[in-house]
Write a structure and sequence with these properties.
heterodimer, A: 181 residues, alpha/beta, Rossmann fold, five-stranded parallel beta sheet, two-stranded antiparallel ribbon, 5 helices, globular, B: 318 residues, four-stranded parallel beta sheet, 9 strands, 14% strand
């Protein structure tokens, strides 16, 4: 059973503006942005436009990660039918990496992303930026920057969606046996 | 009858032949391979997907390249890999195939990659193993070599993404080639509109047209305006009796030279599954030329084999 409660949720476009403001001070020379598929990449693409001036000024590079090959639940869930190549075209060595994800939940996606990043090289630091922290982390990992914190039940699944015109929205579904991400 | 390659949910359980695989599965393998291509270009060329799993390469017939690429693929997925050349071990002492397999299962193998001179060997093993064990056919007799067929299609897709617009020619010893059958099935399933086979009558299987291909005996005619030329190796070791006057004669008629290549489209690509017989089916200047994608095929072969093993071990799509 899947139910939709999207009306109660904050507006993702408003949150994006907040996130951009909070992210800006973190951007400096030798920083690189890495979006986690899919929601994190959508956010990153928008942030690249919103923060264009700072990004050009500091020559900030960016890339994308699909963490499917690093997930700890691969043995139970297998590979998703659709996975996209990770694209890190810059040298990770000694970079200050800022990971971008849509919803922070258990911390397992972040762990997978960190493991993958280290296979590209040794970054100087990694921080995490998320649009929403929904509570329920299972690892000693937390985002440094979020636009909003919402407390959700484990049976609820919060997801960022992208409309054909590029507009972002949050969607909440209640699923029995929903896989935690 | 249920397709032995798929489980009850339609996910890939074994990879035995391209025949019978739906387009959805072929695309899943090709798309997943796309993600693995980048892994080889990183500082650490490994992903942890198959950590703690044991992959057994059982080769009842020699094939250095296929064995090596499967080994590298499994290792890049972080699996433990054991490669057995069975013709030099227990089989020569009289052990049956299934006894060999049972012994490896008792050692907790999770996946078998099987190469055998007899058609159907991988099917036999797949029917025999318990449900949690996966089998990949790495070539059985004249029957099938699915990962080679997949890597060929993957290579074509890399250079010529519009598959539905292509004219592909397969040239040479189709009769003895397990690769050719796998290629033809993959190409037609993925919607390539025109697949040609070019060979002398003696090197074509009976009723080859039923596979949906156009048959040419004249190479000059067959190569006209093609986008892709897939050369096949002249399978000397599989040839019994005199099917050809001589290899020199064969080169003259069916060898790919610069002059014959010029009949294809100017941006046509040249492929060969290896090992090549230079001066028999392909001229060195073509094999090493600008239009040759023979070495990229080898590189992509690793990504394809990683994709197949990753999908099998993960129980398919969700």
């Amino acid at each position: 059973m899947t139910q939709n409660h999207s009306t109660q949720l904050p507006d993702a476009e408003d949150l994006l503006q907040v996130l951009a403001q909070r992210l800006q001070p973190l951007l400096q020379k030798n920083t690189a942005l890495v979006g986690i598929h899919s929601g994190g990449v959508w956010l990153m693409e928008r942030l690249l436009v919103l923060l264009e001036k700072t990004i050009v000024e500091h020559q900030i590079e960016h890339g994308t990660l699909d963490v499917s090959f690093y997930r700890d639940d691969y043995a139970q869930r297998g590979l998703k039918a659709e996975n996209r190549p990770s694209q890190i075209a810059f040298d990770v060595e000694n970079k200050h990496i800022i990971l971008i994800d849509d919803v922070f939940y258990t911390g397992r996606t972040t762990r997978a992303a960190m493991n993958e990043l280290f296979d590209y090289g040794r970054p100087a630091s990694i921080s995490l930026v998320a649009l929403v922290n929904r509570g329920g982390r299972e690892l000693p990992i937390a985002p440094q920057v979020v636009a909003v914190e919402i407390c959700l039940d484990a049976s609820q699944h919060l997801q960022l969606t992208q409309a054909p015109d590029g507009k972002l929205a949050l969607a909440l579904t209640s699923q029995h046996n929903s896989a935690r991400s | 009858m249920q397709n032995p390659q798929l489980d009850s949910d339609g996910n890939l359980r074994h990879l035995l032949s391209i025949e019978g695989l739906p387009k959805r599965i072929l695309n899943q393998i090709l798309d997943t391979a796309e993600s693995f291509v980048g892994v080889a270009e990183r500082e650490v060329k490994k992903v942890p997907l198959l950590r703690g799993k044991t992959v057994c390469n059982i080769f009842f017939e020699n094939s250095t390249r296929t064995r090596t690429t499967f080994e590298i693929a499994a290792k890049r997925l972080s699996a433990d890999v054991i490669s057995l050349n069975v013709n030099t071990s227990s089989q020569s002492k009289g052990e049956t195939i299934l006894d060999t397999v049972d012994n490896l299962i008792a050692m907790h193998a999770d996946m078998f990659v099987v190469r055998h001179g007899q058609s159907g060997a991988a099917h036999l093993i797949a029917k025999h193993v318990p449900p949690h064990i996966h089998v990949v056919n790495a070539g059985d007799g004249r029957h099938s070599h699915p990962t080679q067929g997949l890597l060929d299609v993957f290579t074509i897709r890399k250079y010529k993404p519009e598959l539905h617009n292509l004219r592909v020619a397969i040239v040479g010893d189709v009769l003895h080639s397990r690769v050719a059958r796998s290629e033809i099935h993959a190409l037609t399933t993925l919607g390539v509109p025109e697949v040609r086979v070019i060979a002398p009558k003696t090197l074509l299987p009976a009723q080859v047209e039923k596979l949906g291909v156009h048959v040419f005996h004249n190479m000059e005619e067959g190569l006209k305006d093609v986008d892709v030329i897939m050369m096949l190796r002249l399978q000397n070791e599989r040839m019994s009796g005199a099917m050809l006057p001589s290899t020199q004669e064969y080169f003259k008629t069916y060898g790919l030279t610069q002059e014959k290549l010029a009949l294809a489209k100017p941006d046509a690509i040249v492929m060969h599954p290896g090992p090549m017989n230079r001066g028999v089916e392909i001229d060195s200047s073509v094999a090493d030329g600008k239009q040759s994608v023979i070495l990229p095929q080898v590189t992509y072969g690793i990504a394809i084999r990683m994709a197949v093993m990753a999908i099998l071990a993960g129980g398919g799509a969700q």
